[in-house]
Amino acid sequence: MTEVLPESKSSKGTYGGALLEVDNLHVEFHTRAGVAKAVNGVTYSVNAGETLAVLGESGSGKSVTAQTIMGILDMPPGKIASGEIRFRGTDLLKLPEEERRKVRGEGVAMIFQDALSALNPVFPVGWQIAEMFRIHRGMSRADAKKKAIELMDRVRIPAAKERVSDYPHQFSGGMRQRIMIAMSIALDPEVLIADEPTTALDVTVQAQIMELLAELQRESNMGLILITHDLGVVADVADKIAVMYGGRIVENAEVHDLYRNPAHPYAKGLLESIPRVDLKGQELYAIKGMPPNLLDMPTGCAFHPRCPYRQEKCVTDVPPLHTISGTRGSACHFWREVLDGDAQ
Ligand SMILES: Nc1ncnc2c1ncn2[C@@H]1O[C@H](COP(=O)(O)OP(=O)(O)O)[C@@H](O)[C@H]1O
Ligand SMILES: [Mg+2]
């Protein structure tokens, strides 16, 4: 009996590790004011069919990590100080630019943080989607347009055939984001990074876009990295979560574990600051203080100036990422106390 490999992505290689792995990445920006350490030893991974949420306040290094994965970091002032980014086991940081380009779009694609403003106002949306196929696949105009309509259907844009020649301003924000998603999945990527894909949208539209991303992922078994500052938006669709603070991962967990009982005071603070529908008129908790200054990071744990669990040790010693169990980790000296819920 001959075994026929299904035409799935699993036939693309035999690499047994995670599909995309960021390993101890350090990125800094050399500016006139000094060296800003934007990414300080970030490690995370995503597999086919898996959704990783990367959560953190503005300035925590989420986008810089993603830009480094995509090979589009602004260099200079950016500089990759150390680390690896492996896609199917190959370190992308060591690949020549030409091979790197092949990974971009087909291997790993990205929806950018300011995607809504990225559409060109003077060209019909269908034309902009079709460009992907003309440039990357060398398709004829007619074929590329057909593919563009197919993709508009796939991202559930109603009446795609009629709307393919409409201009960006004729679409709502949610529909424009669907068009950006269509462009990002045009080349059938194995991993999709969505950087704050719903930030500029209304709450109801946010949920629809998340649902669309989840559906597309199920259909194609992509690995999905959802970057967000809003835990509430990703909780339903993510499998696991990496919480970033000051360019570090401070907690790694399965989403439901983090939701049930966070192991880092920062994650706990984020969780407590999500509005809950079951608590009307509640006073929302807000984490006190400001995000750290990357040019002048606090000593010890970067979160210590804001932390209700702070003790002497936190001011002097940088906490390593303690393994709590399995893949769960917390970079807090007092993770046990945090899990138990008693602040000092
Ligand atoms: N082009 C740049 N030049 C200088 N510093 C930058 C640049 N891009 C990012 N940074 C620094 O990196 C930090 C992290 O940025 P970013 O990854 O965009 O944060 P976020 O978590 O909000 O996505 C910023 O606070 C900024 O200090
Ligand atoms: Mg960002």
TrEMBL record:
GO MF annotation list: ATP binding
Cross-referenced PROSITE patterns: ABC_TRANSPORTER_1, ABC_TRANSPORTER_2
Entry superkingdom: Bacteria
InterPro entries: AAA+_ATPase (IPR003593), ABC_Ni/Peptide_Import (IPR050388), ABC_transporter-like_ATP-bd (IPR003439), ABC_transporter-like_CS (IPR017871), Oligopep_ABC_C (IPR013563), P-loop_NTPase (IPR027417)
Protein's UniProt keywords contain Transport: yes
Boundaries of every ABC transporter domain copy: 20-271
Keywords, sorted A to Z: ATP-binding, Cell membrane, Membrane, Nucleotide-binding, Transport
Record's bilayer topology term: Peripheral membrane protein
Localization: Cell membrane
SMART domains tied to this protein: AAA (SM00382)
Pfam (any one): ABC_tran
Family that this chain belongs to: Belongs to the ABC transporter superfamily.
The protein, known as: ABC transporter ATP-binding protein
Species this chain originates from: Microtetraspora malaysiensis
The organism's taxonomic lineage, starting at the top: Bacteria, Bacillati, Actinomycetota, Actinomycetes, Streptosporangiales
